[in-house]
């Protein structure tokens, strides 16, 4: 059984997003391990991009800072290799098309597979453009994760039918970031997705509190949290691993 | 790439978040419905002629021709359009389309501010809400245009992220569009971004080469030997080239901003220094490092200060149908002053890049040859910055 599939077998999955190299490689590696030790079922690792057009201010800043501090795609691969020696939790890259394309899709997949990566999320590659990437990923047994948005409507069944790994349900319009309230009709959206999907579904964008996570978990197989964690990392810097761990534990407990 | 749309060779496509996919599909369907609709085209032509002042003049630059001593030079005077640049052609088309689609709000990015001013103008005319995103750096370089946009009723958002220039303004406009789609049309200012924008913007700008062709046949009874235009994203250039692409005798030359030189880090000459990548919704050439991080480009011209180029230019470059040359800041500023003194025409610093190449090319051609240079905009907005470049401290 694939690692991603297993991640959804321990009740509702909690999926933290952590930007590699923010504030530095060592701390981000510790943050990931701390999240895993405290109940993360799958970790999304962000490979920083200079111009992350789907991100709100919090993750934008993390990307810029990480690049300023010298993170590169090669260093992210090395970090994942080290993580893979100590954990079997599925690791999924979240980055932008150009990071993969510019590296060479085939070469990127070779390195990702070697490092032990299970999937890749590219928010700027929609269904119509995915083949160029997914055909190669398939060869390496890497799942290309599909996203479904509140505006997807008539596109849901088409996307869900070809989805691999899990489906990322985008809870809200706009970019990533903490929201006090999620206004999308999630039960209806996730109902449509679940009826068409053959893989588990996780909801992300705007979720930050255990209460929100608990509510969202009613309608999906997992909950994804990014900006709220990046904010903790931004606040505590090198001391963040402890706080990231505490936060992940509170979130996992809320949806268990 | 079987399902991919809007390809120019390998370039183009729709590399955007899923959230925007239905919005671009809706736009494509609306465009296909209206592009050949006689009523739509009648309205657009009326706006072009009565409001924007089209057709723009094709002016024989006799003094410049004599001074350079080679090919005959004609200037396509897009600077004489209402709002002072070619940008109004595309904006009127898109605003009319947005109105037909029932949209009540226009958002736009701007570099030099010309596209922002044009969008704010159309929004005022059509009674639409308008928000323009502009890099903070550019709001300083082009303060007068910021004031104009506000005067026209638009909100101007100074973008502080990244390099705080055009690329960041595009990113922020895209982010805003994902946030509010229902009532909002993203009035993209160049032949870039996801399909259908490169095609829509090209079609609205193609009026430039349609007119050049007609005017040239009237004046000279033949087609020009070369057409020269500046290229940032590439909208005035594709507009100037489009109706000549099939005429192989017409050389098409795009002038990129080389900044301090194509061998330096401080350049924005995408086709001369970049490599193929995926960014801002399209596959094309981009200035980037070896890991695909987009490079912080540089040019004196805020309008050409962009790390990418429209996908159709990338294709014209690949197929060698068009040639793309780099023009440095120094050459552009010289040309800015040269055209002012020689013809009494102050070109936009962007357009001065095209003038600079004409100064190099014309003397190498016979006197019976003809060059058309597109003056994409007027240079009022640049006077203060050029004065500062020359060490004069003036206030706008």
* CATH architectural type of chain A: Alpha-Beta Barrel
The value of Rg of chain B in angstroms is 19 Å
Shape assignment of chain B: globular
Instruction: Assign a percent range to the helix content of chain A.
Output: 40-55%
Largest interface: A-B, 44 and 41 residues
Task: Report the top-level CATH class of the largest domain in chain B.
Answer: Alpha Beta
> Residue share in helices of chain B?
40-55%
Class of secondary structure makeup of chain A: alpha/beta
For the sheet with most strands of chain B, the description reads:
6 strands, mixed
Descriptive key words:
heterodimer; A: 256 residues; alpha/beta; TIM Barrel; eight-stranded parallel β-barrel; 12 helices; 8 strands; B: 396 residues; Rossmann fold; 2 domains; six-stranded mixed sheet; four-stranded antiparallel sheet; 16 helices; 43% helix; globular
Layout of secondary structure:
The complex is a heterodimer of chains A (256) and B (396).
Chain A: H1 3-7, E1 13-19, H2 25-37, E2 43-46, H3 57-68, H4 73-86, E3 91-94, H5 97-103, H6 105-115, E4 119-121, H7 131-139, E5 143-148, H8 156-161, E6 167-170, H9 186-196, E7 201-204, H10 210-217, E8 222-225, H11 227-236, H12 240-255
Helix pairs in contact in A: 2-4, 2-12, 4-6, 5-6, 10-12, 11-12
Chain B: E1 7-8, E2 11-15, H1 18-34, H2 38-51, E3 58-60, H3 62-68, E4 72-77, H4 87-100, E5 105-110, H5 114-126, E6 129-135, H6 136-141, H7 143-151, E7 155-159, H8 166-179, E8 184-186, H9 197-205, H10 207-220, E9 226-231, H11 235-241, E10 251-259, H12 270-273, E11 275-279, E12 281-286, H13 311-318, E13 322-328, H14 329-343, H15 349-361, E14 370-375, H16 383-389
Parallel strand pairs in B: 4-14, 5-6, 5-8, 6-7, 9-10, 9-14, 10-13
Antiparallel strand pairs in B: 1-2, 2-12, 3-4, 11-12
Helix pairs in contact in B: 2-4, 4-5, 4-9, 5-7, 9-11, 10-11, 14-15
């Amino acid at each position: 059984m694939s690692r991603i599939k297993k991640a959804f077998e321990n009740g509702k999955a909690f999926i933290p997003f952590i930007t590699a190299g923010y504030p530095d490689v060592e701390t981000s590696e510790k943050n990931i391990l701390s999240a895993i030790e405290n109940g993360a079922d799958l970790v999304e690792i962000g490979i920083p991009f200079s111009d992350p057009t789907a991100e709100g201010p919090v993750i934008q800043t993390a990307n810029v800072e990480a690049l300023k501090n010298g993170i590169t795609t090669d260093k992210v691969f090395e970090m994942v290799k080290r993580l893979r020696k100590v954990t079997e939790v599925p690791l999924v890259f979240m980055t932008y098309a150009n990071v993969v394309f510019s590296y060479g899709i085939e070469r990127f997949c070779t390195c990702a597979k070697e490092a032990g990566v299970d999937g890749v999320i590219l928010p700027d590659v929609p269904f119509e453009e995915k083949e160029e990437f997914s055909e190669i990923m398939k060869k390496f047994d890497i799942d290309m994760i599909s996203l479904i948005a509140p505006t997807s409507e008539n596109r849901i069944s088409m996307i869900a039918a070809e989805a691999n790994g899990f489906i990322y349900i985008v809870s809200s319009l706009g970019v990533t970031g903490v929201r006090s309230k999620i206004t999308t009709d999630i039960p209806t959206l996730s109902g449509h997705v679940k009826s068409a999907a053959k893989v588990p579904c996780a909801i992300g964008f705007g979720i930050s509190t255990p209460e929100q996570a608990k509510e969202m978990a009613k309608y999906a197989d997992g909950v994804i949290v990014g900006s709220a964690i990046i904010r903790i990392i931004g606040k505590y810097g090198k001391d963040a691993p402890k706080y990231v761990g505490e936060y992940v534990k509170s979130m996992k407990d809320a949806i268990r | 790439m079987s399902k991919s749309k809007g390809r120019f060779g390998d370039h183009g496509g729709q590399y955007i978040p899923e959230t925007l996919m239905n919005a671009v599909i809706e736009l494509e369907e609306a465009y296909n419905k209206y592009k050949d609709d006689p009523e739509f085209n009648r309205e657009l032509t009326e706006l072009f002629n009565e409001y924007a002042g089209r057709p723009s003049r094709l002016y024989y630059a006799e003094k410049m021709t004599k001074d350079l001593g080679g090919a005959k030079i004609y200037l396509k005077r897009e600077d004489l359009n209402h709002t002072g640049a070619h940008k109004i052609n595309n904006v009127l088309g898109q605003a009319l389309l947005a109105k037909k689609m029932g949209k009540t709000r226009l958002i736009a990015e701007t570099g030099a501010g010309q596209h922002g001013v044009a969008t704010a103008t159309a929004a005022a005319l059509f009674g639409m809400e308008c928000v323009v995103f502009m890099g903070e750096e550019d709001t300083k370089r082009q303060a007068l245009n910021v004031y104009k946009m506000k005067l026209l009723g638009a909100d101007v958002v100074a973008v502080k992220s990244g390099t705080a220039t055009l690329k960041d303004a595009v990113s922020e406009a895209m982010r805003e569009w994902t946030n509010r789609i229902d009532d909002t049309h993203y009035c993209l200012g160049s032949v870039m971004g996801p399909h259908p924008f490169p095609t829509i913007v090209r079609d609205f700008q193609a009026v430039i080469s349609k007119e050049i062709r007609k005017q040239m046949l009237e004046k000279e009874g033949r087609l020009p030997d070369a057409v020269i235009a500046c290229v940032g994203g590439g909208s005035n250039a594709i507009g100037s080239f489009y109706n000549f692409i099939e005429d192989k005798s017409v050389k098409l030359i795009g002038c990129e901003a080389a900044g301090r030189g194509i061998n330096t880090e401080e350049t924005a000459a995408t086709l001369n220094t970049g490599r193929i990548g995926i960014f801002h919704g399209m596959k094309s050439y981009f200035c980037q490092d070896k890991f695909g991080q987009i490079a912080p480009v540089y040019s004196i011209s805020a309008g050409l200060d962009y790390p990418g180029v429209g996908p159709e230019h990338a294709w014209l470059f690949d197929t060698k149908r068009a040639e793309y040359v780099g023009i440095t800041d120094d050459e552009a500023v010289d040309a800015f002053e040269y055209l002012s003194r020689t013809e009494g025409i102050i070109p936009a610093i962007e357009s001065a890049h095209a003038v600079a190449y004409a100064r190099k090319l014309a003397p190498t051609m016979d006197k019976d040859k003809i060059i058309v240079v597109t003056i994409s905009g007027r240079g009022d907005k640049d006077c203060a910055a050029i004065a500062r470049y020359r060490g004069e401290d003036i206030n706008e």
